[in-house]
Design goal:
There is one protein chain. The protein is of the alpha+beta class. The chain has one domain (9-127). 32% of the residues lie in helices and 25% in strands. The protein has 3 helices and 6 strands. The chain has helices at residues 25-35, 43-56, 84-101, and strands at residues 7-16, 21-24, 76-80, 106-110, 115-119, 123-127. It is globular. The two termini are 19 Å apart.
Length: 134
């Protein structure tokens, strides 16, 4: 990863136990999609955005530095600020989640995500440093 690359993460105010970092946008967006009736306002838009990400963003096989299948998934995912279409659609997803779930989503930024163990053109998955925003 380039040392000057800014990374973004969109989080809720709820925390992910047992690690204490805030839950990410996708976790809440998928939960809302499961809970919303298909005819609910914004339900189709929410589903459409999630389908776009499923087609256009790789899903890492693990969120832990350990390869053990039972390892705790303590890594955080970040999107690269230079992945313009992904960032645009993430911000659209933020507005949909806020409208449907009545939640406030916070945008975190960092240039130090932690120990990176997955990276592609759009995202970084990293075990956070002590000073990494969560």
């Amino acid at each position: 990863m380039k040392a000057s690359a800014t990374l973004l993460r969109f989080v809720t105010h709820s925390t992910h136990e047992p690690f204490g970092h805030r839950s990410g946008l996708f976790k809440i967006a998928y939960a809302l999609r499961r809970e919303l009736p298909a005819e609910a306002p914004f339900a189709a838009d929410l589903a459409e955005q999630l389908l776009w990400f499923e087609a256009n963003m790789a899903v890492p096989t693990r969120f832990s530095t350990s390869r053990h299948p039972g390892a705790q998934e303590s890594a955080l995912s970040w999107v690269k600020a230079g992945a313009h279409e992904h960032v645009r659609r993430l911000r659209l997803l933020v507005s949909l989640v806020e409208a449907v779930g009545h939640l406030k989503i916070v945008e975190l930024r960092t240039m130090r995500p932690g120990y990176v163990f997955f990276e592609d053109d759009h995202q970084v998955i990293a075990l956070p440093f002590a000073d990494t925003p969560r």
